[in-house]
Amino acid sequence: MPKTASTNVTVFSRSVVAPVVAVVVVAFALVVWMLFDIARNEDAELSDASVEVVERAWTAREDELTRIVGDYAAWGAAYENLHIRLNRDWAYDQDNLGRATAAQFNLGYIFVMSPAGPSGYSFVDGKLVDRQPAEVLDGDVDGLIGKARLSPEGHPVASVLTVGDDPVIVVAAAVTPGSDPNVKPIDGPSSVLLVGQRMTSSALADLAPRGFLSGLRLVRGAPDAEVSPSVRVGGADTAPLRLRWEPARPGDHLIKRLMPWLLVAAVALSGFILLMLLHAARATRLLEKSSMRLSEAYRDADHQAHHDQTTGLPNRAMLAKALDSALSRPGARLAALYLDLDRFKPINDTYGHPVGDVVLAELAERLRQALRDRDFVARVGGDEFVVVAPYVETRDVEVLCQRLMEAAKRPFVHDGATLHIGLSAGVALAPLDAEDGGELIRCADIALYQAKASGRDAYRFFSREMNDRIVTRAALEADIRNGLEAQEFFLVFQPRYDTRTLAINGVEALLRWRHPVRGVVAPAEFVPLAEDTGLIAPLGAFALRQACEAAIRWRDVGVSVNVSPVQFRSGGFPDLVREALARTGLEPRRLELELTEGVLLEDTERAARILAELKEIGVGLSLDDFGTGYSSLGYLKSFPFDTIKIDRTFVSDLQASGGSRAIVQAILGLGRALGMKVTAEGVETPEQLLLLKLDQCSEVQGFHLARPLPVEALNDLLVGLAPADGDGDSERLARLRGL
């Protein structure tokens, strides 16, 4: 701006505009402050009142359930039909403790615990089931039952347990004849009647008056519990459970109603002042506008040079300046967070780059909101960002990482489609890891690589050992490539046995690596790296072809091959299977592909098409490591699997009684219901084999029967020239068949 114009603007602003604007601003600020103070006090009073309302409503429902249980438990007819003998016809068919009772009192769970311990009558969600309370309810169920038996004069005891994300009010009482003179009590421990109501969102909503509060729910984690208002539910000796809700906020409504009028008044007053000053300030405004245009043009050019056009965030050049400035301050402690998006590429591939740009822009805004005022974020690549943040303790940086990851996890919505991405982060600290900006970013990038290698949605701090691991990883990758060329990889085979006859049903092909220096290397050491580098494709193709070539020599014995999720998702996997079968002449029915849930997680529709194509070829499909994933039952219903393999973690803990056996029995029952064969892997003791045989498991596999064998030893075993473990003991299988 020219000096004269600048002087005129300054004089006019100081003498006329500044005093007028100051009066308007002060008056308006005073009114707004008073409005917000009134609204805040009103909301605070109503919030405090809502706490008392929730506490009374919860206590009233707990007392109501206590009265109901007390009446039923101290009833002569209940004593005769629930304790002296368990009469399910009286309880369920005659509806004394059946659907009508549950519907009348909003009961989702009714259990009658026998003196011996287990429940003899289990009513869950409107149905009779064969389940124990501890299998349905999360919490100290046994402790509650014990307190009920010891309660003076059979008084009911109450507690709060959970089912999923919902609290459950549970009341238990010892079953007694009550005041019925016609019922004679018997000696021994009492039966216990236990009922519960699951406080779902609708049930919680009914506790408090409509419009007074909303969203009554169980708190979701520590940050949610710290937000007021909330109340603790359950006894002092139970796990701490708190309820959260959103109270009505009349103050907010008042602000929303009055603010438009205040804005109108402010605009009108400003217009009146501007009208009076119009003629006097016209020349000054013209000069000021010209100056503003020049200033805006300069700012726009500077902004474009230092900011990303898609997200509006600073770019790499601006990041370098900000880092150098921050690191130049004495005693500066900075954290550099190198962020990389997970599952972003499928969005660009499926919906196009314009949609990807929209997602990036929204994510950038989320990152801004998640940061503190003193933090700095820049976009440095296609889906890469860098955050620079001062810190005091390492915990501050961890909290920041978690906050940024949560911001990225929230779904993105575009044209009715819900899009999901994740975030991985590498963290480097200054001056601990580096004192130079470029070196600090490099260290954070190395830490990001480790975070991506350990799985999605993770963050890792840089350490000096990471450089060593990167060097070691590069050497191992080179060794794998050389090993493929030098034919150092080979297969071993572990038999799978029919549980009843201990005849060999098939064998599982297992990949091994005979390293020239390290000796035989297990798959766990090289398969993850092979998946990261794409080397799993030639390794998987080698294993598939070798397994088919070996199986062609075995009469009526099939072979199963493990398939990596990376190999499965790569293009042309069904063609690879066809080529291996055609090349070896193996019948498709004798080849089984073992898949884990990892092959189904990213794109279920594409996975379904590939599985259907494999079934058309005629090969078998097995779901490996069943029971350890997130949605195994859903996969069994949605995808054409032939076999379920029970994960070895359940078999290793298998005992005559206990949770592992119950899980195994449940999986076996599920397999029978769906018409699927069930294979138990990891059988290592005679007791495990006996229990699986008693529970009618179809097939077993493990060291107790046979260790993985070279193809020559397996050929001898199949023609009866050697026992299962190759130790010369020909009577071993005979003894096992006698179990």
Describe the structure in your own words.
Helix content is 51%, strand content 20%. By secondary structure, it is an alpha/beta fold. It is flat, with a radius of gyration of 35 Å. It has four domains: 95 residues, no CATH class; 174 residues, no CATH class; 147 residues, Alpha-Beta Plaits (2-Layer Sandwich), CATH 3.30.70; 251 residues, EAL domain (TIM Barrel, Alpha-Beta Barrel), CATH 3.20.20.450. The C terminus is likely disordered.
Topology:
Layout: H1 3-73, H2 76-84, H3 88-93, H4 99-105, E1 109-113, E2 119-124, E3 127-128, H5 133-136, H6 141-150, E4 157-163, E5 166-174, E6 192-198, H7 201-205, E7 213-218, H8 222-225, E8 230-233, E9 241-247, H9 250-306, H10 316-327, E10 334-342, H11 345-351, H12 353-370, E11 376-379, E12 384-390, H13 394-409, E13 412-414, E14 417-419, E15 422-430, H14 437-453, E16 459-461, H15 464-485, E17 489-498, E18 504-515, E19 519-521, H16 523-533, H17 536-551, E20 558-562, H18 565-569, H19 573-584, E21 591-595, H20 604-617, E22 620-626, H21 632-638, E23 643-646, H22 648-652, H23 659-674, E24 677-681, H24 686-694, E25 699-701, H25 711-718, H26 732-737
Parallel strand pairs: 15-16, 18-20, 20-21, 21-22, 22-23, 23-24, 24-25
Antiparallel strand pairs: 1-2, 1-6, 2-3, 4-5, 5-6, 7-9, 8-9, 10-12, 10-15, 11-12, 13-14, 17-18, 17-25, 18-19
Q: Which descriptor suits the 3D outline?
A: flat
Would you tell me which CATH topology of the largest domain applies?
TIM Barrel
Count of individual beta strands: 25
**Total tally of structural domains:** 4
- Indicate the low-confidence ranges by residue numbers: 721-732, 735-739
Distance between the termini: 99 Å
